[in-house]
Amino acid sequence: MKIKDAVNMIRWEYREKIDDYVIIIIDRLTENGLKEISFSELDAVDNNYLYLKSEENTVIPLHRVLMIKRKSDNALIWKR
Q1: What's a Pfam family in this record?
Q2: Distance, CA of 55 to CA of 33 (rounded, Å)
């Protein structure tokens, strides 16, 4: 399954529990090199980027996405 398909599946099939899902990305500015982004922060996804709801209009390239997890039970939904 492609990243875009996994993101869209969660956004549409689990929208009532969207806060329970996070996207883990590579982030060079953090100490451990990883950053968690809640699905509630996600505005859109296309074939190349994730677009976040923010004043800075943050755009994240999909090649930085490592995995998608469910927080409640730490289940791995998708992994590169």
Answers
A1: MJ1316
A2: 23
